Amino acid sequence: MRKTGMNISLYVYDTKADTYELRKILDKPNMLEMDLVIGPVYNELVDIAARWAQRNRINMVMPVSQSDQYLMNNRYVFQANPSVEARVEKAAMYLARYWDKNIVILHNNTDVEKNLIEIYKNKLAGSFDYSTGIEQVVIKEINCKLRGLDKIESALSQGENIVIVPSSDEAFASEIVNKLYSYADKYKIHVFGMSNWVNFQNMELQYLQKLNGTFFTTGYINYSNKHVANFVASYRTKFKAEPDEFAYQGFDIMYYFCSALKRYGPNFKDCLSPTDIYPSKYGLRTTFEFDNIDRYSGFRNKGVFIVRINENFETVPVEVDQNVNYFFKFEWN
User: Of 29, 64, 228, 309, whose Cβ has the fewest other Cβ atoms within 10 Å?
Assistant: First the structure.
């Protein structure tokens, strides 16, 4: 960061996941001089810090929490990790292109799945209307717990089938993928699942590839990118270890917000929008596309990647912007 001309005074405090420790930190006189606070990580501490940030008019970044509740009526809070609603909204906008296909939603009747399905339906309805002008689209829904997996075939058509499975349960998701794979030679199937599927022990990647497995995820690391390669090399040299997901995320958050501070000053929140070219929205792992829920809320990140399983069983972006402008303006050592 020094190479870009940033001069940063960095203070690091350990909350010990304790509300008392957090309050002691926030009561320190020098905290009122901060231009930016990143954290805390734990949800039970976020509300205390968010209220403090609003009261003292200091920008705060939630690096992990995906809850929108801390943004309500608080213009000083940024949500760096996109919420489930943000991912579903991105999914709905993407799926709107399939309005004339056979759309099927499969679930196991859990409360989490049913909640996601309602969000999907609402967002899909809005996306279809906005993107295509179509007022009515038929979406088939099968409760596999009630009707069983053998009923899936009755919902498939001879045309293209868009199958949405909003489940993070390994056993159920694997069972669904196995069943859909058994139909893959008979029907054209494009399955949309949850991003954690690729990490499941029992998930067959060759099945997902055959089914055009596609996912919506809040983070994607392109290891062939020179910035990622240089970051990995620098991290290994400094820490004698491999960077994990939080290392990439931490770098992206720090660089993005410090760049905004440098260019716009402490009131940078009034200068950001999803279409801003500076700071660029692309990081090593994270995409930043901030907007507001309403005029009184804080800022939520809607940056979501669409990825698929390719013929080499690798996770790759579906849509690649060939003119990506990364926000790194220096050469790595």
Answer: 29
